[in-house]
Amino acid sequence: MSRDGSAGAPGTARSVPARAHPGLLALGYLLFVVAGALTATIEVLLVPSRLGQTLVPLAPALAVLSNVALPLLSRSLGESMLSAVPPVAGWLVTTFVLAGATPEGDVLLPAGDAAYISYSLLGFGTLAGLVTIWRTNRPGPWSLGWLSSPTARSGSDNDGAR
Prior knowledge:
By secondary structure, the chain is mostly helical. It contains 4 helices and 2 strands, in the order H-E-E-H-H-H. The protein has one domain. Helix 1 (about 20-45) packs antiparallel against helix 2 (about 60-75), helix 2 (about 60-75) packs parallel to helix 4 (about 115-135) and helix 3 (about 85-100) runs antiparallel to helix 4 (about 115-135).
């Protein structure tokens, strides 16, 4: 037994992470839903971005980036395997609501010359979010082990030999 009462090598402290209060956890998930919705709104508004006369496909790139970064951050802060879902759910609902036409016929995701950007935003953003959710809940290179303590990571494979 070590000094703190846990089994292990003497002098090494093992800490058990404290569980978050359910209300605080729900607030955190709500904030991630709002963050996903805000990024979706910004990305939809950036679809018709132009540099001079040239369309700039900035929105799909931002959609992929936000739908990888936000679920990774959310999953790293939450205990549940479903912790990566709130930002993607907020992004999906907001994007598909904004993709619809108003009764007057106005649209935010235009067809025509910007159609490839609109469809890329919907397709790549959704795919990035779903793949990120899937990968954060499986062991492998995208698992969140790199966010844990540095002592949990294994050492070098070559053992110092050259």
